[in-house]
Each structure stands twice: as structure tokens, then as C-alpha cells.
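Form 7-S
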Amino acid sequence: KFQEQMVMEQPNFQVVDQKFDRHVVIPDLHGENVLLEKVINKYQREDTGFVFLGDLIDRKGDINEVNSVPKLLDTIMALGNRAIITLANHELILLGALNAEDEIRAYAYGYYYDMIKAHTVSDYDILDDKFGWNKDELKEKMTNLGHLALLMSATPYYETENFIATHAGINHKKPWEVQKEQLNELSRQLA
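Output:
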């Protein structure tokens, strides 16, 4: 129930209609901009769409690139309408933390987000402390760079005639058409 309420607070999620002759589907990048640039260079054609399965933020592993999350989001923005982003848990947590108006909900988001945030916040040159983080400063920086709007444009799923792309959550025991209608209804409510 709490996660459903979290999703309901996000204002711009929509199902996208972009269709391409070819698709490159890219899972969890977690700030790996250098890897993304290699993939884009390899598949650089105008008829190719890049479908990102979310978890773009919150660096993981051994990424030595400074400010890798902002660079990754800039790289995706440069793709224009060829970039399709499906919503994932890391973006949902970040957006919930940045957009929660209610003090208690903001604290809950912040507390959970605190477990995964270190690299995203530091990648925006924001000093963190042991007792919290400056969500207003992060929100302002992400807004000014267009990164917040990019993440807010995420779609719950992307579907073509040949495949369905989503970060997670497809229930193999439930017909896709039922799940799709639920996601579409959620998207209508969020628009």
C-alpha cells in the first residue's frame, strides 16, 4: 500500500508511444556512463531506440569517473526521443524523496533512500552529513540540469509488437492485458 501511494505522488509518468525499427535494451546502468557511451557508439543509427530499464542512478561497483550519474543522464538526454526510460526502484525512491511534501513521508523516503544515495548525491557535488542530506539542493541541481524532468518522464513499461520492457514486477500468473490496464490506469492518474 505504501509503495502504491509513493507511485501515486509522482506527477508525470506516462506510457510512451515511440516506436523504432530496432531497439537496444539496456538494464541497470547505475551511473556507468563510459559503458553507456560505448553501447551508443556501437548502435548509433537513427532507426534505433534505446530502452533503459531504470536504475540509472546510484553508482555501484568500481566506477572511477567523477560525476558519473549527471554525465550518464546528460548522455541519455542527448539521445532525445530515441531514449525511453522505464521506471525502476532507485528512481522511484529518489523521486519520492525529492517530491514528498508531507514531513513524515519525506522522512520515510529519506531514511530508505539513505541506504542507496551516497554516490548520486556526491556526484552532484553536494556534501552529505551523517544525519541527513540536502534534498532541496539536489532537487534544484537536478531540475536546473533537466535531470529531474528526464527521470519524471519515465514510463511504467514499454511495449512493441514484439516485446514488453519493464524494470521488474511482471506477474507470470496474471495476464499481461490485466497488468497493462492497471499500469495504464495508474499512468492516467499520474498525468
